[in-house]
Task: inverse folding
């Protein structure tokens, strides 16, 4: 998979998905938690603290003995890693010249000591890093991981780690009525007509949006068409009810919406194959709409059409896996 391709996949280590940096052997200059902070790293050339220059990242002290430093990341959602970005933004004379990534799949909630003693497997062999650069590397091993270990050689600072991949949550918890489209349950966006202002993946993120920027907003249409987004569900399932949330979209909410579904990927381009789950229905601005779905046909993909354009905060496709 190319860098451009894997960068389109979700960040499995994201704080939005409840990822965490659970251990670092050293974080003298800057805390490990910064590694998965949302947004781009920031830098103030005039900001200094008691221990020296303040960096928005993870930075270890200068090593005076053999060895290397490392940090352990618990993925917010376990999954198959397709690519990793090690961003050394603002680290110029203090970035690590090399790094590697190990992974492991563990059940439950391992303790710090259990993680340290675990039989880690290599995911990304030792690679060279550039300073002040978003260093991107594809990953070839196609298996499920729950934790990653970032090794830096020998020491230094890394601003962010982004772990792009495909979510593979524990199916034991995907029982009963669940949100089939949720990113944390294994759903994802596979197509979108327009993502001018913000990503359509926002609408399947956990929790409620806190402002307009946390939803999906397209550009204003000046033709006779309409905008849409297509999601692959966690698995084939029967939809019971849906939620279309336009919270914080006040003067730019869609006037209407429609939801349809299909069972196979081969049918995506066949307009006649789509099954109507929710007919074209009027929407209100800044409103959390809920609609029952009167269909017992199992679907694997859903398409949300908005008319003619406008912003959506969240989409919930509630149902049961087959």
Result:
């Amino acid at each position: 998979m190319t860098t451009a391709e894997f960068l389109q996949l979700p960040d499995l280590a994201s704080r939005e998905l409840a990822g965490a940096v659970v251990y670092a052997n050293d974080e003298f200059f800057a805390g490990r938690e910064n590694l998965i902070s949302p947004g781009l790293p920031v830098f103030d050339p005039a900001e200094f603290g008691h221990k020296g220059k303040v960096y928005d990242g993870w930075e270890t002290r200068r090593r005076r003995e053999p060895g290397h430093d490392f940090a352990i990341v618990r993925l917010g959602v376990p999954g198959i890693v397709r690519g990793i970005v090690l961003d050394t933004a603002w680290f110029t004379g203090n970035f690590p010249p090399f790094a590697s990534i190990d992974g492991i799949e563990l059940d439950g909630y391992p303790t710090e000591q259990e993680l340290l003693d675990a039989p880690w497997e290599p995911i990304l062999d030792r690679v060279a890093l550039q300073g002040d650069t978003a260093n991107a590397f594809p990953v070839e091993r196609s298996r499920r991981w729950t934790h990653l270990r970032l090794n830096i050689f020998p020491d230094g600072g890394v601003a962010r780690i982004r772990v792009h991949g495909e979510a593979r949550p524990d199916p034991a918890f995907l029982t009963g009525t669940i949100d089939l489209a949720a990113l944390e349950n294994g759903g994802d966006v596979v197509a979108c007509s327009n993502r001018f202002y913000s990503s359509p993946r926002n609408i399947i993120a956990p929790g409620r949006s806190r402002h307009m920027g946390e939803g999906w907003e397209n550009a204003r249409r000046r033709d006779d068409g309409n905008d849409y987004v297509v999601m692959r569900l966690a698995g084939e399932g029967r939809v019971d009810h849906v939620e279309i949330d336009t919270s914080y979209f006040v003067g730019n909410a869609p006037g209407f919406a429609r939801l349809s579904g299909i069972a196979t990927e081969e049918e995506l381009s066949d307009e006649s194959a789509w099954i109507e789950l929710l007919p074209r229905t009027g929407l209100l601005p800044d409103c959390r709409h809920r609609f029952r779905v009167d269909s017992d046909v199992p679907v694997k993909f859903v398409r949300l059409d908005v008319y003619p354009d406008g912003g959506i905060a969240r989409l919930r496709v509630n149902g049961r896996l087959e």
User: Anything to note?
Assistant: The chain has a mean pLDDT of 95. The domain at 3-167 is CATH 2.60.120.260 (Jelly Rolls).
